[in-house]
Fold:
Amino acid sequence: MKCAVAAFLAMMSLVFAEHAPAAETKALLVFGDSLSDGFMLKRSEAYPALLAKKLRAAGLNFLVTNASASGGTTEGGLERLPPHLKHRIDILILELGINDAFRGLPIDQIQNNLQQIIDKVKARNPNARVVIAGMQLPGYAADDYVSAFGAGNPSLNLPDGIHPNAAGHKILAENVWHVLESVAREVAKL
Structure:
């Protein structure tokens, strides 16, 4: 009799385990320029896709949307943002500004545009967490404005010397993951 009860309880635990609600899918929006878009690479090689794999491997249930656009600027980001605000955003990875820097846009204007993007996301998603992806300008020009940003490792770039290759995107993914992992684990618990 004890064996029958134990077997029944074991079967019922399997039934209930199969019907247990899965963790709610959280939404991560990557909003950037060609660096996040994966310029000249397959989208699967770009760091946002690599982050999606890392999230899955960590057992974190996130839908990653890469809404990046090559050539994107902070002003263009403000124009592109409204359709994305129609959807929930739990985490925003914001990677814009390098094209503004190439154009010599004043830093305070870049900061203002980035803050407006953050404010608009937070107005629609008050609990959204924001990760700002910083970048270094490659040795693109000799003027003080550009050279003040530093330069990257040429072996991790495409032949244009600006955009990261697949190996560069792996490093980008690792660098962003160092910040994102703890944020994603926190958000997953909410």
Remarks:
- The first strand starts at residue 26 and ends at 32.
- Confidence is low (pLDDT under 50) at residues 5-20, 142-150.
- The longest helix spans residues 166-189.
